[in-house]
């Protein structure tokens, strides 16, 4: 099984997690936005990787401006996660 296949299959458990997290209504809303943002990060990274391969004939990790932009979005989602859970702990 290729790494691409494993990556694709890993989306199903994550989507199930998002579904249960949303349905439970026990997750802080801001953190839930962060988890959904992580899914958007994946959706952005895939075309960015293809663009890096086609335009620069290199992997995404080696195209600094493109990789840095994608990672910046991931940083934002991580901040949302932390702030959401921090807020939930403070409100306990």
UniProtKB/TrEMBL annotation:
Keyword S-adenosyl-L-methionine: no
Coiled coil: none
Keyword terms of this UniProt record: Membrane, Transmembrane, Transmembrane helix
Residue stretches spanning the membrane: 6-21, 33-52
Pfam families referenced in this protein's UniProt entry, alphabetically: DUF3593
Source organism superkingdom: Bacteria
Name recorded for this polypeptide: DUF3593 domain-containing protein
Phylogenetic lineage: Bacteria, Bacillati, Cyanobacteriota, Cyanophyceae, Pseudanabaenales
């Amino acid at each position: 099984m290729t790494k691409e296949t494993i990556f694709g299959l890993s989306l199903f458990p994550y989507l199930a997690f998002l579904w249960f997290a949303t349905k439970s209504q026990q997750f802080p809303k801001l953190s839930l936005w962060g988890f959904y943002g992580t899914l958007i990060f994946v959706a952005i990274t895939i075309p960015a990787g293809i663009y890096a391969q086609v335009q620069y004939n290199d992997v995404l990790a080696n195209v600094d401006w493109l990789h840095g932009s994608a990672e910046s979005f991931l940083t934002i989602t991580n901040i949302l996660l932390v702030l959401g859970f921090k807020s939930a702990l403070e409100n306990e």
